[in-house]
Amino acid sequence: MIPAVLIGTFGWLLANLYGTLAPYRDSGDLAAAALSLGIAHPPGYALYVLATRAAMALLPFGNPAYQANVLSSLWTAAAAGLLVWALSRRVRPVAAFFGAAVWLFSPAVLRLSLVSEMYTLNGFLAAVILAVVLESGPAGAKERTRFVYLAFFLLGLGLLNQPTIVFLLPGLLWFAWDASGPDRGEKARTLAACAFFGSLGFTLVAYYPVRSFRQPVLDWGDPESFRRVFRLITRADYGGLKLHPEESRLAWTLPGFVSQAGIYFRALYGELRVWGVLAAAAGLFVPARRRGSGKSRELVFCGAGYLLASPVFILLSNLPAASETSLPILEPYFVMAHLLTVPWMAAGFNEGLGWLEKRVPRRAVPALGWSAVVLAALFTRFKSARRDFSAYDYGKNVLKTMPKDSSLYDPDDTTAFVVSYLQTAGGLRRDVVPLMTMRTFWGYRQIRERHPELAPPGEFRSAPVFISALLARHAGTGRPLYSDHPSKFPEGLPNGPAGLLSRAGNARSLKDFRESQEIFRFYVERGTGRDLAVDHSDGFFTRHLRSRASSALNNIGIVEQNHKEYGRAEAYFRAALLRQPDLTQAWNNLGLNEFLQGRYLRAAEIFRQGAAHAADRGTLLYYLALCQRRMEQPSLARKTLEEVLQVHPGNAGAMNEMGLAYLDENNWITAEKWFRKCIEADPSYVPAHFNLGLALRALGLAEEAADSFREYLELSPGAEDSAKVRGWIRVLSKRRP
Fold this sequence. Notes:
The protein is mainly alpha-helical. Among the domains are: 2-379, no CATH class; 390-522, no CATH class. The chain is 65% helix and 2% strand. It is built from 35 helices and five strands. It has helices at residues 2-15, 27-36, 46-58, 64-88, 93-104, 107-112, 119-135, 142-158, 169-179, 184-202, 207-212, 226-233, 254-291, 297-317, 326-330, 334-339, 342-357, 364-379, 390-401, 413-425, 441-450, 463-477, 510-516, 529-532, 540-562, 566-579, 584-596, 600-613, 617-630, 634-647, 652-664, 668-681, 686-698, 702-715, 722-734, and strands spanning 407-409, 433-435, 481-483, 495-498, 501-504. It has a five-stranded mixed β-sheet. α4 runs antiparallel to α5 (93-104) and α7 runs antiparallel to α8 (142-158).
């Protein structure tokens, strides 16, 4: 069975691999680092870089990214085969296969097995260490001691691939203590030898300074000194434990613990599904209760490792539970974490098979088992990546967008790494300079060393001051400046859409703007319309990359709309929706397009249709209510706004519009209540102060109305109607008793 599992798994994964660079988060950087024997982003991934570079040299076919993808699949297949081999000696082979299959078909393992990332190598090393723990001899046996040393050597080596393998250390320390027999002197000698072999594996850390001295193309952190090496491997410039620079917060509260527990259980169910969770629970508790002792190899080793690698790690990362990025960021770490549950799942399936054998004919048990595998496979959501060239095509189209000697400012990880791969592997557009600081001192130093003509002279006390000086210096060079998102440019820097990107600079004439959008005709995107659309069956990072085109089309439509070219604007908004049917901004702008032309009925229909498809239903319902008010349908507007407040409780805009709907019906008292609710929810919401003044004036409360109008003027001193409002205040002040 073992060769069949290994060959079958590897062959199946090969048939579904990305044919080139994958759109997964850091794939471009890791493939480029391996190809150039460079130093990848922190913590460097030395073992992955060297192993993948060796595979690139040995494989006689495929481009570098594909070769890296092949190796990821091989690590997964080898881990699955090793798990089945080790567990088959403890449970029924079919049960071992079922346990490994649940892990193999979990979304994280499937996705990471098809891309150039280091997580499947991490899983393979964990599988080898787990097999060593399970297969070692009795306590005190020499062969078991040798197994201990091998496990620690692999752990030290693995730290230079993915540092989270350190979560296996507590279980390994127990294993070493137990393996060395009852003599305390022997235990001390064994632990000292384990430290030696672990350190021996970790000596691969020398790769960083040795390679950095040679100035490779990718040299993250310039780790030529002990301090810089330490900062690299601890991710000091990346925030250490912070997996997201803005959203990870290293501060914990009781509600935070509850939200992190929610993330944990969502991830557990999403990865292992009901059958995996139930099997793991059965395998963990039933045999342990039967033995009367939980002190077993797999229980201590896997239990300690799993607790640290999954619930504790999720808690430490402290990502917001409501953010759509949290689970995708955590997903790669589940490859190793859930591998540690395979012995429990195998034991659980073994219990189930034993129960079946007592109740059904023995020959029927395998048939029932394989039927369960087929059903599980049918319910596993999987999409082959063999025809997905989105990352490679996106990178080439980004480079096509920029004229010669351009700069790409502060791109997202995916954009930066895809461009880096194309420049490194294909030698494409090396005239394009990525202006990336990564918000680190190394990033600033890198710009100064590699592009001194662009770097501002002098020292700077803060990043914002440096960025301001950098952009001012760049503007003086005359080089075109682009970014992959308009929000990347500092506030106040004019910019506008240019194909897939945004270009810094003052607004151009409509004729020049339209000529710049002709670049879309030269983009190459392989696949049919369905292949290019944002599909929820794709992973988060694939959807994120594909949404770039729909966002770009939407931004171009906004420019046309601002020039009152409503027909052309509509065409761009509809093109954006063809690619991404749930794009809230495109639905909103398409409806606004009709609203600006006074066609409120058509606008209302678009907003209603968009509310059924868009990611943010509440926003579309809000604008539907505005249309209903314009069509003098206040009762309908109120019902729609009630729906908005169900979706977005505390939405100040909806509360303000609810008050206006009551104002339309001269219901001053209820209108006043809604305006006060709005101000309570958001005291800085300017229109509510003005509208509250109108309601209070209608109720004859002159002094309170005057106070509301004063607050309105304080919040918006430059308002166009300020003179009129001051006149009202004077009149209302005269009415005071």
